[in-house]
Specification:
The protein is mainly beta. It is 5% helix and 56% strand. It is built from five helices and 42 strands. The strands form seven sheets. The chain has a 22-stranded antiparallel beta barrel. A hairpin with a 2-residue loop joins strand 31 and strand 32.
């Protein structure tokens, strides 16, 4: 009897238990409808679940009842949850699709026209350290960028020329704020440098076209420099160089840091040792003071302040062709100040906020023998922007900014002056849509208006990127870009409108295990360029009538893997550029746009010598110029440009760096064009003078000592 009762109870309980179970089944697919195996499927708050099979199907039993949450998880895909009402029996779940999870490191990125120097980005081309240690750059940011695709080395200028565009077509920004007069003022045909020390910056974004709607008033390129966040230690950095010296001191804590820097340079002692081809009566000299401070505000807020003031000058005689004597004396004095502050914060709800303001003030006093001239300009920039990631698929950038520009030039001895003021307001927006891990679309609009010219404009921009393989992708970018005419033109004609350019760029980017390959084709159409009669020093009848184009391709290859302790990159750019502009009546090849540009940079670290040896080679096919003794415009070309530079960096102690560099080692007599007399001689010939280099070579020696509690710290730790 007991046995039969026990058996009855067991069968009854088993039947009751079976009636209490629910069977859940279904199928899981990706966004293309392909079955996904290996997906973890489970009820939230329980151990009931299973894993999908090779067909993406799943089935499991549960004793749960009522409303439950069913979770789907697979690495590389977004976790997905759905509510399920469990009432017993069998429940067939409708087919579910999992979406790929997209992160900055896994997703495709826009690479058309974009090159980043950062240790954080997947598409990095150069690191901040590379900028400082490029031999031909001698510590100049732009000097290092001139080894990248799309750029041209114009040795008698020193500024950044990109894809057939003039140096004024490059917009320079620090922490998103525009910098006016970013290069030091110099005399004609004496090369200049950027004003700012590369040690200030943690990363560099350099675009050769098709850049973000955030940046405007630049036809060819945007160069965005991002300053460092909090410094990590107290330290002092002493620099002793063949052209001057400086000292920088940093005080740092977990919440704030400040760096004070002072530098002085004077080329007189150097030029006393190294013969110059230029006739300097007073070698270039100058000093600068700089402060950079950072402070955490709350959990995710950061305040940055940067201030700089500097002064310098030179005296030089430049002979005139067909004239006897040393030529007129040019006496130049420059005063420059720049200040900015910006605040950024990441809010808990996914918004990133930015507020910033900057002001640039430049004053030049230039004497041409007895003629005294002055030039003053200021640019104030106010900016507010926000970024919102609505998901890992959709991101929005929205911003407003205002520029206030004043410019004046005059002849103080004659009490003559002309000037203008202009306020420009902008609104921009940009959206990124990740349609999948392999495809992203970026669309942007930038609208602006000018109070001086009473002009309004709207510039659309769009970019696409598609991942072809794990390491390779293709990008396409197009857009319209506008830029106000140069200040010395606008002051003569306040009604001048924006110059314009349309960009089209096709890019292929491949990166794997320390090897990077980049190929890019481009086409630019210019419109509304400034034309005038006369000469650039005294133009008349200025108007927006010019047009032109620039087209070509760039190749870039970098290898940090194949050769032990060796890093090298090779760049080749072909640029076919013609434009009708300034005094030219036909479309001509600009003198700043060589067709063929090649650069090679090699760095090798010798462990036993605690040294890095560097070499860089820059070559182009010469510069176009107009020879008035021949018919036509831009009818001649200089011999090809060549510059081989070497460097040696020695670390005898971790906190001591000795760096030496020599440019144009072979002493090639590079010529960048010719100055011609304004009238022919008795034989009917316009006499000429070659525009060359200040000296066959430039030698640099620097000793950099870091003083800190950490004896291993040095100035390279800042980069």
């Amino acid at each position: 009897m007991n046995l039969r009762l026990t058996l009855f109870c067991y069968l009854f309980l088993l039947q009751s238990l079976a009636f209490g179970q629910t069977i859940l089944s279904g199928r899981i697919l990706d966004e293309k409808g392909i079955p996904l195996p290996g997906v973890n499927v489970l009820l939230k708050g329980s151990y009931d679940g299973t894993t999908s099979d090779v067909e993406g199907s799943f089935e499991f039993e549960t004793g749960k009842e009522g409303m439950q949450i069913l979770i789907f998880r697979l690495m590389g895909f977004k976790t997905f949850e759905i509510p399920v009402a469990i009432e017993g029996g069998r429940i067939q779940i409708a087919d579910q699709q999992l979406r790929e999870a997209i992160t900055e490191m896994s997703g495709v990125t826009i690479s058309a026209g974009a090159m980043e120097a950062s240790d954080e980005k997947k598409s990095v081309v150069l690191r901040p350290l590379d900028i400082v240690t490029t031999p031909s750059a001698v510590g100049d940011i732009v000097g290092a960028l001139q080894t990248l695709p799309g750029t041209s080395a114009v040795g008698n200028d020193g500024r950044l020329f990109v894809r057939g565009g003039d140096a004024s077509e490059v917009g320079i920004y620090i922490d998103g704020l525009r910098v006016a007069n970013a290069y030091g003022t110099t005399a004609g045909n004496v090369p200049t440098r950027t004003r700012f020390n590369p040690n200030l910056f943690k990363g560099t974004f350099f675009s050769t076209g098709g850049y973000s709607a955030e940046y405007g008033q630049a036809l060819s390129s945007a160069l965005a420099l991002n300053t460092k966040d909090l410094s990590i230690r107290d330290q002092g950095d002493l620099s002793l160089m063949s052209v001057g010296g400086g000292y920088s001191h940093t005080l740092a804590s977990e919440e704030q840091s400040i760096t004070l820097t002072g530098n002085y340079f004077d080329l007189s002692p150097y030029q006393g040792l190294v013969k110059q081809d230029f006739d300097f009566e007073r070698a270039p000299f100058g000093w600068d003071l700089e402060v950079a401070a950072q402070k955490k505000l709350g959990k995710d807020g950061l305040l940055k302040v940067l201030g700089r003031t500097e002064s310098g000058g030179m005296k030089i005689r430049q002979p005139e062709p067909g004239q006897e004597g040393a030529g007129p004396l040019i006496d130049l004095r420059n005063q420059y100040s720049y200040a900015q502050g910006n605040w950024s914060k990441i809010s808990p709800k996914g918004w990133t906020w930015f507020l910033g303001a900057s002001i640039s003030a430049n004053s030049d006093e230039i004497a041409f023998d007895s003629i005294q001239t002055t030039r003053d300009n200021q640019l104030a920039h106010l900016k507010a922007s926000t970024i919102r990631d609505f998901s890992d698929r959709v991101s929005m950038k929205l911003g407003v900014e205002h520029f206030f520009n004043t410019y004046a030039e005059g002849l103080p001895l004659q009490n003559l002056e002309r000037s203008y003021q202009d306020g420009q307001s902008f609104i921009y927006t940009e959206w990124d849509w990740y349609l999948s891990k392999k495809l992203v679309i970026r669309g942007g609009l930038r609208g602006g208006l000018s109070s001086l010219s009473e002009e309004k404009w709207l510039d659309p921009r769009v970019s696409f990127a598609y991942q072809l393989s794990e390491n390779g992708q293709v990008s396409l970018a197009a857009g319209k870009f506008s830029q106000a005419p140069l200040e010395n033109y606008r002051v003569l004609n306040n009604d001048l409108k924006n110059t314009q350019a349309d960009h089209l760029i096709l890019n292929y980017f491949w990166n794997k295990d320390g090897i990077t390959f980049r190929a890019e084709a481009f086409h630019k159409e210019y419109d509304e360029l400034i034309r005038f009669e006369g000469v650039p020093m005294a133009p008349v009848n200025l108007r927006n009538e010019g047009s032109g184009f620039a087209r070509g391709f760039d190749l870039f290859f970098r290898d940090r893997q194949t050769l032990k302790n060796t890093d090298y990159w090779v760049t080749y750019s072909f640029v076919d550029s013609k434009r009708s502009f300034e005094q030219f009546t036909t479309q001509v090849q600009p003198g700043f746009a060589p067709k063929h540009n090649l650069s090679v940079v090699v760095k090798h670290f010798v462990t036993g010598l605690k040294s890095q040896l560097g070499a860089s080679l820059a070559v182009n096919d010469g510069y176009a110029y107009t020879n008035p003794n021949l018919p036509g415009e831009m009818n001649s070309k200089t011999p090809g440009f060549q510059n081989l530079s070497l460097s040696w960096s020695y670390l005898p102690r971790p906190n001591l760096i000795i760096h030496g560099a020599i440019t144009n080692v072979l002493g090639r007599e590079n010529i960048f064009g010719y100055d011609f007399s304004t009238t022919p001689n008795a034989q009917g010939v316009y006499e000429s003078r070659a525009i060359g280099q200040p000296a066959p070579r430039f030698l640099f020696l620097g000793i950099f000592l870091t003083l800190s509690k950490d004896k291993n710290a040095n100035q390279l730790n800042n980069l």
